[in-house]
């Protein structure tokens, strides 16, 4: 009897070990386990046959950025698979890409672009002006879901005098036009079904997209420019920051495009096998007031609330030493940035005084609509605590992203809300009195419109600086902080973007040592 | 038996239809408009209208329901709102991960739980009997994701013998690589699942051990092993099989958690994403397939019970139970 028992246990254990063991014996064969040591590569040397494994939290929803593809498709495809007439570099400059040169008519209403010669699509089709026209019209089309559509409404017509020339006529002057074109992918006008395939001109073509898991890019032999410094890239998609960090720790990925788990940074920062890059993002966290409704229609109240919140303490508690304080809507990578943190400084006494001046010495109450995902609920609690110091009582109302969209963005049914605004150059929203936050200063509206009609970049910069200073002085919103853009990579890797402007992640210059 | 099978099949179809109705209506009760989830902040009303028209959420509910049921009937699960890709093939691609994960975990759990549960009952008063019972209690108390994270920390981050997550890009082309990726998730699920199974096996065995017929049989000169083998195990198996059915179904549905801990591209991740994006065709498709699987498992468990226990069979032909 005893023997039966023992043998039963033995059989069970053997079965369990066999199952677990069939994995452990062949660990190195698994595609997910990279193996290898983490010693630093000698300077300059790299392996041109290496595949770069990239870890990301942003899987594309489909492969078409005018069909609601989302942030993920921009990250994987922008500059890698598709190219625009111009390119936005990681430090915010606009460079020629598929456009060899361009001319602007003296009235500033006609832009004539000359296309680079010898450019081929992945399908082998040569690039022509008709493709560019098709691509621009695809973004501005009625059913386009591109977030960039509204900034291109100034386009009146696109003409193609010959195969290498594109002439765009505008209804109004637009100094940002060339910059805006850096977002438009040039797509083959004969391409079909762009939601699941592609036909771009970039250094990589789509390898395989395994939904829910990976997307691979392989070098395109017929590329017109410099060939990639690697044998291809694989984007690995994760839904949790912890899993992403584990993958980096086990060498399953070489680089993480955007670290979202501040607590995990320590283990990489203190390890010579990794490099933690502290870049500048363009994502601003806002306490947006509804400037149309009481008491936030009063500038003094907005200033008081802004001054009562210790942004430094908030940023530290969420991101530690990472991230930047901004006193207004403009991030340091925009040409019209200046440090305005002193305009509404953290000063509780000042806040109390301003509140008294506004006739609200006893404080007031308001409801803060808070999106239910990180970090908003934490931030809301922090703000509630800070404002209690000046007698302001905050009721936190947690809502889903969807509700936010309907309640706050569409119906403007709110007093104040938390939200992040991700793009660069979006200070111009303060020039639109119809925007959800209802900031209406005719002076700023004029400045923003004039800036867009500038003749030179200097003039544009000067006018937008003025506008930015004005919105800061009016405390149009409270700009809590600028998110850090943290790229964590194996120290064997170089040549990756660190700022990730507008979620781009050009991979063609990445080298693995 | 034939009548019984037919009755069960009819029951299956009716349940599935009812589930479809409930599922469809529940989804429509969710706050928010799927069209909003498709667009970025700053979309114009025309863009929203266009999106709504594309996905058909501007049409009356009965019409939407009829369309969906019509699609189901022709084995077409529709197109995702978000990706515009057909849902059916994608679910099939995910099942390549979820089904092996479920079956392997289930098998491992049964292989562990049956002998351990038996020992825990038969040797209840020994130190190791109590120890086994204690362990099973502990296993019931800990959540799956915690076990998963613990295993990752030990086997992937410390010992570096198994990957922390992911699944080969070419699926099962290299079975060893695929099994390697599944090793930790399978052990995780099996550990948690066997904990509750052990308790069921143990109590079923305790019942049998205390039964009159076993005592009688032994009094007639049979050895314990012989008595257990001829009568005990079969009797103990009846309640255990129905629990096994429930456990198998639970594992299939519970794969969501373990798949997300181990970054496996299975049905779970797809479902979570679908819900976040209000992607009705994806949610409906997955729940339809899962409901079908759960009903089938229940059916199979019933059938097995009948094969083991002739008394149940008798009731099927002889009228009501």
UniProtKB/TrEMBL annotation, chain A:
InterPro entries: Peptide/Ni-bd (IPR030678), SBP_5 (IPR039424), SBP_5_CS (IPR023765), SBP_5_dom (IPR000914). The keyword Signal applies. Keywords: Signal. SUPFAM superfamilies: Periplasmic binding protein-like II. One of its GO terms (cellular component) is ATP-binding cassette (ABC) transporter complex. Belongs to the bacterial solute-binding protein 5 family. It comes from Streptosporangium becharense. One of its GO terms (molecular function) is peptide transmembrane transporter activity. The keyword Cytoplasm does not apply. Its main location: membrane. It is a lipid-anchor. One of its GO terms (biological process) is peptide transport. It is found in: Cell membrane. Residues 93-421 form the Solute-binding protein family domain. This is Peptide/nickel transport system substrate-binding protein. Residues 1-20 form the signal peptide.
Automatic annotation (TrEMBL), chain B:
SUPFAM superfamilies: MetI-like (SSF161098). InterPro entries: BPD_transp_1_N (IPR045621), MetI-like (IPR000515), MetI-like_sf (IPR035906). Pfam families: BPD_transp_1 (PF00528), BPD_transp_1_N (PF19300). One of its GO terms (biological process) is transmembrane transport. It comes from the Bacteria. Residues 95-305 form the ABC transmembrane type-1 domain. It is found in: Cell membrane. GO terms for cellular component: plasma membrane. Belongs to the binding-protein-dependent transport system permease family. This is Peptide/nickel transport system permease protein. It comes from Streptosporangium becharense.
């Amino acid at each position: 009897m005893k023997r039966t028992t023992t043998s039963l246990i033995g059989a069970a254990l053997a079965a369990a070990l066999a199952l677990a063991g069939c994995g452990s014996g062949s660990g190195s064969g698994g595609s997910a386990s990279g193996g290898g040591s983490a010693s630093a590569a000698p300077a300059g040397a790299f392996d041109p046959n290496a595949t770069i494994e990239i870890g990301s939290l942003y899987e594309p929803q489909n492969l078409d950025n005018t069909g609601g593809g989302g942030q993920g498709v921009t990250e994987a495809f922008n500059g890698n698979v598709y190219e625009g007439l111009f390119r936005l570099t990681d430090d915010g400059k606009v460079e020629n890409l598929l456009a060899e040169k361009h001319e602007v008519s003296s009235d500033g209403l006609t832009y004539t672009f000359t296309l680079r010669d010898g450019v081929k699509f992945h399908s082998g089709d040569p690039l022509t002006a008709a493709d560019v026209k098709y691509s621009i019209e695809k973004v501005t089309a009625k059913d386009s879901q591109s977030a960039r559509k509204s900034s291109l409404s100034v386009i009146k017509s696109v003409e193609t005098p010959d195969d290498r020339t594109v002439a765009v006529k505008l209804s109004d002057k637009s100094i940002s036009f060339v910059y805006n074109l850096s977002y438009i992918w040039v797509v083959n006008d004969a391409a079909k079904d762009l939601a699941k395939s592609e036909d771009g001109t970039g250094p990589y073509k789509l390898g395989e997209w395994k939904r829910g898991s990976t997307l691979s890019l392989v070098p395109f032999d017929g590329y017109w420019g410099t060939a990639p410094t690697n044998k291809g890239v694989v984007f690995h998609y994760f839904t949790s920051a912890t899993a992403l960090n584990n993958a980096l720790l086990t060498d399953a990925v070489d680089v993480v495009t955007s670290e979202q788990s501040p607590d995990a940074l320590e283990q990489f920062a203190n390890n010579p096998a990794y490099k933690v890059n502290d870049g500048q993002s363009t994502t601003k966290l806002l306490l947006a007031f509804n400037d149309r409704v009481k008491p936030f229609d009063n500038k003094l109240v907005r200033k008081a609330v802004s001054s009562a919140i210790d942004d430094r303490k908030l940023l530290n508690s969420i991101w530690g030493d990472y991230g930047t304080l901004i006193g207004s809507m403009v991030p340091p990578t925009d040409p019209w940035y200046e440090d305005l943190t002193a305009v509404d400084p953290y000063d509780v006494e000042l806040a109390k005084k301003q509140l008294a001046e506004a006739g609200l010495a006893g404080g007031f109450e308001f409801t803060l609509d808070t999106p239910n995902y990180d970090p908003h609920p934490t931030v809301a609690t922090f703000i509630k605590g800070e404002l209690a110091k000046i007698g302001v009582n905050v009721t936190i109302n947690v809502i889903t992203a969807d509700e936010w969209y309907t309640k706050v963005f569409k119906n403007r049914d709110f007093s104040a809300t938390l939200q992040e605004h991700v793009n660069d150059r979006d200070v111009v929203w303060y020039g639109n009195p119809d925007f959800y936050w209802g900031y209406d200063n005719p002076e700023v509206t004029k400045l923003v419109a004039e800036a867009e009609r500038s003749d030179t970049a200097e003039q544009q910069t000067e006018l937008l600086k003025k506008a930015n200073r004005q919105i800061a002085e009016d405390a149009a919103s409270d700009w809590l902080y600028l998110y850090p853009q943290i790229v964590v990579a194996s120290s064997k890797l170089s040549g990756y973007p660190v700022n990730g402007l507008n979620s781009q992640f050009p991979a063609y210059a990445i080298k693995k040592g | 038996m034939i009548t019984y099978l037919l009755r069960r099949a009819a029951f299956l179809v009716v349940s599935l239809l009812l589930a479809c109705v409930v599922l469809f209506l529940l989804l429509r009760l969710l706050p928010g408009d799927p069209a909003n989830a498709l667009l970025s902040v700053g979309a114009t009303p025309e863009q929203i209208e266009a999106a709504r028209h594309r996905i058909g959420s501007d049409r009356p509910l009965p019409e939407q329901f009829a369309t969906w049921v019509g699609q189901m009937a022709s084995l077409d699960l529709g197109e995702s709102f978000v990706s515009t890709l057909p849902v059916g093939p994608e679910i099939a691609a995910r099942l390549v991960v979820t089904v092996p994960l479920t079956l392997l975990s289930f098998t491992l759990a049964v292989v562990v739980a049956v002998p351990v549960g038996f020992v825990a009952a038969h040797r209840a008063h020994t130190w190791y009997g109590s120890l086994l019972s204690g362990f099973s209690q502990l296993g019931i108390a800990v959540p799956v994701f915690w076990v998963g994270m613990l295993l990752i920390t030990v086997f992937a981050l410390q010992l570096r013998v198994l990957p922390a997550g992911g699944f080969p890009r070419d699926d099962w082309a290299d079975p060893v690589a695929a099994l390697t990726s599944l090793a930790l998730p399978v052990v995780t699920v099996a550990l948690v699942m066997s904990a509750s199974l052990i308790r069921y096996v143990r109590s079923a065995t305790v019942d049998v051990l205390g039964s009159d017929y076993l005592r009688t049989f032994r009094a007639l000169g049979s050895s314990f092993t012989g008595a257990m083998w001829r009568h005990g195990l079969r009797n103990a198996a009846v309640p255990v099989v129905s629990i096994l059915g429930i456990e198998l179904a639970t594992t299939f549905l519970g794969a969501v958690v373990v798949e997300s801990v181990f970054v496996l591209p299975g049905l779970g991740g797809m479902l979570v994403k679908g819900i976040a994006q209000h992607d009705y065709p994806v949610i409906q498709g997955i729940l339809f397939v899962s409901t079908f699987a759960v009903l089938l498992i229940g059916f199979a468990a019933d059938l097995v019970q009948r094969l083991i226990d002739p008394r149940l069979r008798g009731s099927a032909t002889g009228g009501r139970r």
